[in-house]
Amino acid sequence: MTLTATRPATAVVKPPVRARRGSFRWPLWVLLALASVITVSPFFVMFVVALSPPGEPTLPARWPESLSLDTIVDLLSSSGFAGWTVNTVIYALVSVVITLLTASMAGYAFAKKRFPGRDTMMWAFLATLMVPSQATLIPMFVLVSGLGGVDTFWGLIVPTLANSQAVFLMRQFIRDLPDELFEAAKVDGASEWRVYWQIVIPLTRPILATLGVFVFLWHWNDFLWPLVMAQSDEMRTLTVGLASMRTEGSSLAVLMASAALSVLPCLLVFALLQRYLVNSIAMTGLK
Amino acid sequence: MRQRLRDPMAGLLFVLPMLVLFLVFRFVPILGAGGMSLTDLNLGGEWNFVGVDNYARLLDDPKFWDSLRITLVYVAIYVPLTVLVALGTALLLNAVVFMRGLFRGMLFLPYVTSFVLAGVIWRWIYEFDGVINGLLGKLDLGPVGFLEEAALVLPALAVVSAWKGFGYSMLILLAGLKSIPASYLEAATVDGAGPWQRFRRITLPLLRPALFFVVVIETIGAFQTFDTIYVMTGGGPARASYTLIYGLYDQGFKFSNLGYAATIGIVLFALVLVVSLAQRRLLDRGNA
Fold first, then answer.
1. Cα dist. A138→A159, A229, A271, B18, B272 in Å?
2. Chain B contact for A167, CB < 8 A?
């Protein structure tokens, strides 16, 4: 996951309203349009091939004369693809829910509680960011397979939940909430759990949404860990299934149809939450 | 008194779930990686303590040096490519107003997809009967084996990862550009500075922290490239794209040499650490 929380949002200086600098700058506009077309065109050709009638030679030799949903319908009714999709949905959604819960709890404790070892713990969590996940892939695999986690959902999900960026992001956000809120709740006799559930969770909703989207995309697109964990066909996720289709030589139309279907949730999330995603990267990535 | 005692316990309880996750699935594997690299553990679960034998074997292995060279060449192609594309598009987005939101969305779009998807689409785009060679054919230019020629495969892979990944860096740089006060640039214009001079003397120096951040992030990412290679070339042709990570995966899960694979993981960690520390030093000096 590449969401990098370093400093609070205040680090970004709002630009002053920009004075119009005259000209329309159309050469720059054309360049930008060209670059945008280049980034989008691979998706475009993927969808064209996915929607080509089966058995008809199409791109790059010629455009299909008509579009058809046949390949996609076939694919949706094949058990392999449906199974991969279900696995991916479980992997992504369960991870999102548990990560949001545990990270917001830890973030709340780090931000507003005093307890022995707090700063050491926070530092130790953050230090793990320096270790690339592939460097610990082998011991992780040995550990999880020793616990009987190969080919199980818990083996797939639980080891990916220790997420220091999520904890840190939550801590930064909760730290900026006014202390008076928590003190008032305590004076009113609210239990710790109630304070968390009725103050922390509602007030952190925007950051929970952003974090949730990133955790979802990260799990939906994750490859190496599911590849290692899913040793039977039944446990494959979409990325692992797609890679296996490629090496097992599925037809181009079927391959592109699977690719197109597997990316739809990401495109949907992106279309709905573009502004959120973009702003949060601008906010959190910059020192 | 009770009130005081309640607080530390509550804090610990709230951290507890994440703490357990970190202890078991971060700290144990990190320590385990070091320990495992000193054994000849295999997939059967048998192991002996072999001291630094794995490291000695690595240093003696010409294939290791090959994969290290390939990894470094890949990083040297990917990082400048991605950073330049990200900088270029960020500058354009910053300068253009009409339909800016739409363009930003289109440019960022590949970032939300997976490297596997990028690899699947682009493998076909690169193939002999793929899109690029189809276009080249219309221009009467011979088919190019992007993934079949050793000299082309690393740049071809770098283009795919850059396509998929540059959007993140682009947004970071765009935020950096927006934080540069317009009055600086206007003052420079009044003083007669041309576009290049303004870029060179004002934009670039003020963008430097964001630029360094992006370079560090992209370098670390490039060292970890695996998915696209797995899907597109399988390390080929003739090992021309056989990176360190690919070797780690093969040794661990194809040849079942878990101890040896863990050793490659330690080398990767050391490399990433050295590179990020070096870049950090450069960054600090740049700011001084």
1. 13, 11, 37, 22, 18
2. yes
The answer to whether residue A4 neighbours chain B at the CB level (below 8 Å) is: yes
Q: Which residues contact A28 (CB under 8 A, 6 or more apart)?
A: B92, B95, B96
The residue of chain B with its CA nearest to that of A13 is: B179
Quick: pLDDT tens for A209-223. 889 999 999 999 999
Alpha-carbon distances of A57 from A52, A54, A60, B207, B253, rounded to whole Å: 9, 8, 9, 49, 38
Q: Is A278–B245 a contact, with Cβ atoms under 8 angstroms apart?
A: no
The pair phi, psi for residue B49, each rounded to 5°, is: -75, 125
Q: Which residues of B touch A192 (CB under 8 A)?
A: 6, 10, 13-14
A vs B, Cβ pairs < 8 A, gives: 302
User: C-alpha dihedral over A228, A232, A238, A242, to 10 degrees?
Assistant: 90
Chain A contact for B278 (CB, 8 A cutoff): no
Contacts of A58 in chain B (CB under 8 A): none
* B116 close contact with A: CB closer than 8 A: yes
Nearest residue in B to A285, CA atom: B172
Q: How far apart, in whole angstroms, are the C-alpha atoms of residue B231 and residue B4?
A: 57
pLDDT in tens, B176-216: 998 888 888 888 888 888 888 888 888 999 998 899 889 98
ipTM for the complex?
A: 0.90
- Residue of B133, B94, B68, B230 whose CA lies nearest to A227: B230
How far lies B56's CA from each of A221, B63, B64, B142, B260, in Å? Answer: 37, 13, 11, 46, 11
Task: Read off the pTM.
Answer: 0.89
- Secondary structure of chain A: what % helix, strand, coil (to 5)? 70, 0, 30
Question: Token digits for B59?
Answer: 């240093």
- CA–CA separation, B165 vs B108, rounded Å? 9
